[in-house]
Amino acid sequence: MAEFNGNMPEEEMDKKAAKRAAKLAKKEEKLRKQEEKRRMKLEQAGATPEEIDKAMSYNSEYEEEGGSRLAVFFVTVVIIAVWLAILALVIKMDVGGFGSTVLHPLLKDVPYINRILPEVEEEITPEVVNTEYPYATIEEAVARIKELEVALQNEKNAVAEGQNKISELQELAVQLEAYKANEAAFEEMKQKFDEEVVFAEQAPDIEEYKAYYESIDPANAEAIYKRVVEQQEYDEELVEYVNIYSSMKPKQAAAIFDTMTDDLKLVAEILLAMDADSSSDILGAMNTETAAKLTKIMEPSE
Fold first, then answer.
1. For residue 152, what pLDDT is reported?
2. From residue 179, how far is each of 79, 176, 182 by CA, in Å?
3. pLDDT of the residue at 68
4. For residue 4, what pLDDT is reported?
5. Secondary structure (DSSP) of 227-268
6. I need a surface site. Which of 68, 72, 116, 128 has the fewest CB within 10 A?
7. Could you tell me the maximum CA-CA distance found in the chain, to the nearest angstrom?
C-alpha cells in the first residue's frame, strides 16, 4: 500500500508525469515533422540554408506569439461572457427596477433577448373615452359626415341664391339709374319745350295745352317718348353712316353695299341722306341688280 502523507501518492504522480511527458513528446514530434515539411518546401523552392534557418526561426516566433494571442482572445471571450451573464442576472432579478422599467418596454418584442427580461405584470389601463370623437362605430361617423356634406351643400346653394339675388338687385339698380337719367332728360326736355313752345309769346292758349296733356294716356305718352328717343338715336347713327361712307371711294362703298342685300332699306336711307353726286357715284359702281332694287326703294311715293 502506497504511503499517504496528506498529499497525492507518488505512484499516481508518476503516472501523470509520464502522461504529460508522453503528450509533450508527441507535440514535439509533431512540431518537428511540421518543421521538416516546411524545410523541404523551402528547399524545393530553392531557398538557401541561411534563408531556411531565418524562416524557421520566424515561424517559431510567430507560432509562439499566435499561441499567446489565442490565449488572450479566449480569456477575453470568457471575461465578456461572465460579464454578460452577470448583466443578464441583474436584469432578470430586476435590480433597481432597471429590467422592468427601462429595458422591458424596449426589448419585450425582441425574440430570444426578451427571455432575460423579468416577468412584469402589465397593467390593464382603462379604456379612455375620447370626448372629441363621440362615435362608437365607423358607420355612425360616416353617417354624420354625410349629414355634414348635405348641410354644407345646402349652405352653398343658399350662398349661390344670395349671389343671384345680389346680381338681380345690381341689375335693377343699373336700370333704375338709367330710368332716373331718362327721367331727368325728359324733365329737361319738357322744361325746354315749355319755355320755347308752350309759354312762348306766339304760343296757343294755355288751356289748349292743358286739354291736350289731359287727353294723353300715361302709357301712350311713355310710348311716344320712347319712339322719339329711338328715332333721335337712329338719326344720329344714320348721320355717322353717311359721314363714314361719304369719306370712302365710291367703289369701296359700293362693294360694302352689295353685301347688305338683307338690309337694303338702311342702304337706301344712307344714300338718300348723302348728296346727289356721292349717291349717284356709288350706285353707278354697284351691282346693277342691287342698284335697281335700291332705286326702286328710293323712288319717292306719290
1. 92
2. 108, 5, 5
3. 63
4. 43
5. HHHHHHHHHHHHHHHHHHHHHS-HHHHHHHHHT-GGGHHHHH
6. 128
7. 183
- What whole-number percentage of the chain has pLDDT above 70? 72
Q: Which amino acid is at 237?
A: E
Take residue 237 and report the three cell numbers written for it.
347713327
Residues 177 and 193: their CA atoms lie apart, in Å, by: 24
Position of cell 308752350? 198
**CA gap 164, 158 in Å, rounded:** 10
Q: Which residues contact 282 (CB under 8 A, 6 or more apart)?
A: 245, 250, 253, 254, 257, 271, 274
CB neighbours of 238 closer than 8 A, spacing ≥ 6? 269, 270, 273
Write down the pLDDT at residue 154: 92
- How is residue 235 written as a grid cell? 338719326
Cα distance from N-terminal residue to C-terminal residue, the chain? 180
In this structure, what C-alpha cell is assigned to residue 128? 379612455
How many residues does the structure list for the chain? 302
